[in-house]
Amino acid sequence: MTERTLVLLKPDAIERGLAGEIIRRIEDRGFAIVAMDLRALTREFATKHYEEHVGRDYFEPLIEFMTSGPIVAMVIEGPEVIRAWRAMQGATNPFEAAPGTIRADFATSNRLNLTHGSDTAESAAREIALFFPNLK
Ligand code: CDP
Ligand code: MG
Fewer CB near the last or first residue (10 Å), C or N of the chain? Predict the structure, then answer.
């Protein structure tokens, strides 16, 4: 089924010049980029995005990280893209991620792990509406 997901290139991806490499993988896979924007997140906005993680021990450092520099937010579209993009990212912890995934190939820690992808259709809808309220 054709669906959409929210992708974030986190501050480490932009800082390290990996945006092109990651976008290349999305294009090579045949997914369509239907929205894309470079922006800085406020604490309030990052907290809304990661609201399900409020109260976790890593929450504060995660928000610090996500507001430490610009990010690229994207909406990508294609068959089974929610699951497929999470498979392309690999596991949260890059040292557990399968070889050939973005996180296994480039990420350095389970916080600085380069990308975000919505985990369900419900979170994709919520996150896309948060980042791109005018997207049709
Ligand atoms: O991004 P993903 O869905 O794979 O992981 P998550 O469990 O939803 O966690 C969201 C984000 O929090 C991760 O991508 C990491 O950047 C961060 N995190 C962290 O800093 N420390 C942890 N122990 C777990 C996650
Ligand atoms: Mg998640």
Answer: C
Largest CA distance in the chain: 38
Tokens of residue 25, six digits: 């993988």
Contacts of 13 (CB under 8 A, 6+ apart): 19, 22, 71, 72, 114, 115
CA–centroid distance, residue 130 to ligand 2 (Å)? 15
In this structure, what token pair is assigned to residue 24?
A: 């290349």
| pTM metric for this prediction | 0.98
Pocket test for ligand 1, best of 10, 92, 108, 116 (most atoms within 8 A of CB): 92
pLDDT digits (tens, 9 = 90+) for 97-134: 999 999 999 999 999 999 999 999 999 999 999 999 99
Distance CA 10, CA 66 (A): 7
Distance (Å, whole) CA 84 – CA 79: 8
Spell 9-27 as b/e; 16+ CB within 10 A means b. bbbbbbeeebbeebbebbe
- Token pair, residue 9, equals 């290139």
CA of 65 to the centre of ligand 2 (A): 15
